[in-house]
Design a protein that fits this description.
Distance between the termini of chain B: 34 Å
Radius of gyration of chain A: 17 Å
Strand order of the largest sheet of chain A: 1-2
Structural class of chain A: mainly alpha
Largest interface: A-B, 27 and 28 residues
Shape of chain B: globular
Order of helices and strands of chain A: HHHHEEH
Strand content of chain A: 5-15%
Strand order of the largest sheet of chain B: 1-2
Distance between the termini of chain A: 15 Å
Shape of chain A: elongated
Oligomer: heterodimer
Number of strands of chain A: 2
Helix content of chain A: 55-70%
Number of strands of chain B: 2
Structural class of chain B: mainly alpha
Largest sheet of chain B: 2 strands, antiparallel
């Protein structure tokens, strides 16, 4: 698999895929997309990068252990539901913060935080499995 | 947001009244463990911090579930609907006496296991996630006890199963993988049946909210029709697999002796009881007509489960396998309560579930301590434990009496209630089976007592002789981390035996809440229920 063409193109491809996954994540609230599918795209970016340049360089690039990323995703996903406590509403009731940013309406919300949490859980879990499988192959 | 602005009356779709802060206690058990599990997962390289954080979180879980139980006893059934959407569209989480009691007892057991795990789970086990898995297991267990939505029940089952797979293979021994494959395959089949049955149920009623289904079933002309009978049979098979009832019980003794002893203790205490809880919830609350229709089958399964468990325990020489069969025998007693189905019988089943959660966990922990002392789980090699530690021998005897259903310990009262209910319903075989199973269990535990405690040393030691006790005590036994959990659980066993009124009242409330579910339906669906 480690041809020159693949090794040259893989970092760019992986970077593009991560960028695209973030785009998919952000458009997910009202249109097709969202945390789960975005996370899958990002995890496949990690897998491609791993196949081309080795698992060690992926682990260096993402800094944290994939399971740690997963844990953080679960953490913020769960916390996003808790904010409604302070508003006397039920668990997971969405809270919105809509403000004007140089004439553009920016809606921030707890569903977005939850979606980011899902994204990180999927990246971490699937990425962790993919990297473990690729490592085995190298043995 | 960005779109044509339409004036919407949110009151049609959403709950607009403020939610009392106390109602958050319903989600607190799952939430504490989920957030805590995520934290532990992030910090899993820090093996010194793990046990402290894990035990603190499990302690918080015990407090939260106790507060929830007290609130449920004060206010009756309480419900919170996720995201403020009106039920049956919003997903409801409901705490009634049954769910809250089991959540509380389950939390206590998990806390004890977390404490015990401080000494028995080494740093590699911690790095591979003993505490995160234990916490996430509790997320699933508490979620199952408190959800009011059939599909969410399935999701929580998955959460607890995935965590249990992780706990089961912790340590990576060959035998563990063997046990995990058997456990995994059977549970996979079970959850798939559960999912299929849930799909059929949704197809029939177009709703997954338990209270909503229960009202729709009650309104049917023929609530025991063929389609519903199919759904009920599928549910029974799926949950019987989880609970390890007779024809599908083989996976339990084949897998529960493989992992770390504290993991076995949690599994034996909690997992099968979640299956029994689901049976009670589905068959008594949602499909009461199908339960009546299937009562004879359930009764037969209960009798066979009681017998297999007790006879299997008599035949074993491996202590953990022996205890595994006793778990199965206990499941038989609970199924007997379900077969009779009166408020009295269900309350007996609930009390028995509570008793079984505590006593089975305690017995596995005791087995772990026996292994620490003698380096074996095999009855042929154990011996002389009475000379080694008289107090521990006393504790073991208490637990042995309790699991056999002898007075004055916690196993006695639920058996009295169940036998009484079975005879009252003219199911004499069922009552007799409970009594015979109890008798056989007494023999099995007596065997353990004679071999491991009374006999002077390993097999072959002559009567009256004793092998000299090695002076040094293993380092794991120093300090309270091993003794405290066993002490707490034994104290509960004694307390529920001598003062059973509190637990009888709790389980009667739990049982009448599902047998006559008006309060439950009102709480979920509002006054029209």
């Amino acid at each position: 698999m480690r041809t020159v063409i693949f090794r040259t193109i893989a970092p760019y491809l992986a970077a593009l895929m991560v960028l695209f996954s973030i785009f998919v994540l952000l458009r997910g609230h009202n249109e097709p997309g969202g945390g789960f599918i975005g996370g899958l795209i990002a995890a496949s970016a990690l897998a491609i990068f791993g196949i081309a340049c080795g698992v060690a360089s992926v682990r260096r690039a993402i800094v944290f252990h994939p399971m740690g990323i997963s844990g953080f995703g679960l953490f913020i996903g769960a916390l996003a539901g808790v904010l409604s406590f302070f508003n006397n509403q039920a668990f997971m009731t969405s809270q919105w913060l809509i403000f004007d940013f140089f004439g553009v309406e920016v809606p921030l919300s707890t569903p977005l935080v939850f979606d980011i949490g899902v994204y990180l859980v999927v990246v971490g879990a699937i990425g962790s499995i993919a990297l473990a499988l690729e490592e085995r192959e190298a043995d | 947001m960005a779109g044509p602005s339409v004036s919407v009356d949110y009151a049609d779709a959403m709950i607009t009244a403020p939610i009392a802060a106390g109602d958050w206690l319903i989600v607190a058990p799952s939430l504490i463990t989920m957030i805590g599990g995520a934290l532990c997962l992030m910090l899993r390289k820090n093996t010194d911090l793990q046990p402290k954080l894990g035990i603190a979180l499990l302690g918080a879980l015990v407090l939260a579930s106790l507060a929830l139980l007290i609130r449920v006893l004060d206010h009756g059934v309480i419900t919170m609907v996720m995201g403020n959407w009106l039920p049956p569209f919003g997903i409801a989480v409901t705490a009634d006496a049954l769910g809250a009691t089991l959540t509380f007892i389950g939390s206590v057991v998990a806390f004890c296991a977390g404490l015990f795990g401080m000494k028995t789970v080494n740093s590699s086990g911690r790095r591979y996630g003993f505490y995160p898995f234990l916490l996430l297991l509790m997320t699933g267990v508490c979620g199952s006890f408190l959800t009011a939505d059939v599909f969410n029940l399935y999701v929580w089952f998955e959460v607890l199963l995935i965590s249990s797979y992780g706990l089961l293979v912790l340590g990576n021994d060959r035998i563990q993988l063997d046990g995990a494959v058997k456990y995994g395959v059977l549970n996979l089949v079970g959850t798939n049946l559960f999912l299929i049955a849930t799909g059929l149920l949704y197809g029939i009623f177009g709703t997954l909210n338990m209270a909503d289904i229960a009202t729709k079933v009650a309104a049917l002309d023929n609530p025991a029709s063929g389609t519903l009978a199919t759904v009920a049979a599928l549910y029974f098979l799926a949950f019987a697999m989880k609970a390890a009832a007779f024809p599908v019980n083989f996976w339990l003794p084949a897998s529960y002796h493989t992992p770390n002893i504290v993991v076995s203790a949690v599994f034996a205490g909690l997992l099968t009881k979640v299956g029994v809880y689901a049976l009670i919830r589905i068959f008594v609350l949602i499909l009461p007509a199908s339960r009546e229709y299937m009562a004879d089958v359930i009764g037969l399964v209960a009798i066979l489960t009681l017998m297999t468990g007790a006879l299997g325990a008599l035949a074993q020489t491996e202590l953990r396998r022996l205890l595994g069969f006793l778990v199965i025998a206990g499941i038989g007693s609970m199924l007997a309560g379900l077969a009779v189905g009166s408020t009295l019988a269900i309350s007996g089943a609930i009390f028995y579930a509570v008793h079984s959660i505590i006593v089975m966990t305690a017995l596995y922990l005791a087995a772990g301590i026996m292994n620490m002392m003698e380096g074996s789980y095999n009855l042929r090699q154990l011996g002389g434990l009475y000379q080694r530690n008289v107090a521990f021998a006393g504790v073991f005897l208490v637990l042995a009496f309790a699991v056999s259903g002898l007075p004055p310990f916690s196993g006695f009262w639920p058996k009295v209630i169940l036998v009484d209910a079975a005879f009252g319903d003219e199911r004499f075989w069922l009552g007799a089976a409970i009594l015979v199973s109890g008798f056989l269990t007494t023999m099995a535990m007596g065997r353990v007592w004679i071999y491991a405690f009374w006999r002077g040393g390993p097999e072959g030691t002559a009567d009256g002789q004793s092998v000299a006790v090695t002076a040094s005590s293993p380092p794991e036994l120093a300090g309270g981390a091993v003794w405290l959990p066993l002490g707490v659980l034994t104290a509960l066993v004694v307390y529920f035996g001598i003062q059973p009124e509190w637990m009888i009242e709790l389980s009667t409330r739990g049982a009448s809440g599902v047998v006559d579910p008006l309060g439950y339906l009102r709480s979920v669906l509002g006054e029209q229920g």
